[in-house]
Amino acid sequence: MGLITELLKGLRVTGGTMLRTITGREMVTTQYPHEKRQKPQRFHGRHVLNRYPDGMEKCIGCELCAGACPADCIYVRGRDNDPDDPTSPGERYGYVYEINMLRCIFCGLCVEACPTEAITMTHLFEFSTTNRRDAIYTRDELLMDRNGNVPHMFPDDPLIDDEELLSADGWVRATAPSGRVAYQGVQMWQATPGPASWEPEPSQDVIDARSEPEDG
């Protein structure tokens, strides 16, 4: 008898929740993929290789991202730029760039290690594959096009959220500069995509001096 009582209590909770959901008084789920929840600014989704506004690739093939990766899921090979038709503004560019998404732990250390902000993380999170080989993303899947569009796993998907595709610099924007109040409102990243320049980031020494109270 006690078992039946406990079972009825459980069914009452389940049934009550279903009724509240059906009547619209309490929505506990979203109708994915037709509805996508708003992701936090620092959401760590799939990676993207960025370009400068003139189409130059930001990756210089330094392999620092691969060295910083604790999961050893990034493979980079650099190649010297063609002087007559350079791919990046540096001496080298990332000729081979691969990320094994099955091993990636989405820690974002590759983003921190990159000296040119060539790799950032978007809000895209769809990774459905039918075999393990498709989970290894190459330059073709990672590199944004010259219009600043981020490649999507399903390019013909009518449900693609453009806001998510254009949030490639969200991770950099949210974490720089270390959450200090003195840097509030100061842009410390290279905007991607959109109009920008090759100017270096603002000097932290200069900003620190501005934030210090004047004597007297």
Written description of the protein model:
This protein has 216 residues and is α+β, with helices and mostly antiparallel strands. It contains seven helices and five strands, in the order H-E-H-E-E-H-E-E-H-H-H-H. It has a domain at 47-177 and 186-195: Alpha-Beta Plaits. The chain has helices at 2-22, 64-68, 109-113, 139-142, 162-165, 170-175, 204-211; strands at residues 47-49, 74-80, 92-100, 119-121, 136-137. The strands form two sheets. The chain has a three-stranded antiparallel β-sheet with strand order 2-3-5.
Largest beta sheet: strand ordering:
2-3-5
Q: Tell me the name of the CATH class of the domain at 47-177 and 186-195.
A: Alpha Beta
Rg, alpha carbons: 23 Å
**What can be said about the biggest beta sheet?**
3 strands, antiparallel
Helix share bin: 10-25%
- Please identify, by name, the CATH architecture of the domain at 47-177 and 186-195: 2-Layer Sandwich
Low-confidence stretches: none
Outline the fold blueprint.
Elements: H1 2-22, E1 47-49, H2 64-68, E2 74-80, E3 92-100, H3 109-113, E4 119-121, E5 136-137, H4 139-142, H5 162-165, H6 170-175, H7 204-211
Antiparallel strand pairs: 1-4, 2-3, 3-5
Structural descriptors:
216 residues; Alpha-Beta Plaits; 5 strands; two-stranded antiparallel ribbon; 3-stranded antiparallel sheet; elongated; 11% strand; alpha+beta
Provide a short characterization of the protein structure:
The chain is α+β, with helices and mostly antiparallel strands and 216 residues long. The protein has helices at residues 2-22, 64-68, 109-113, 139-142, 162-165, 170-175, 204-211, and strands at residues 47-49, 74-80, 92-100, 119-121, 136-137.
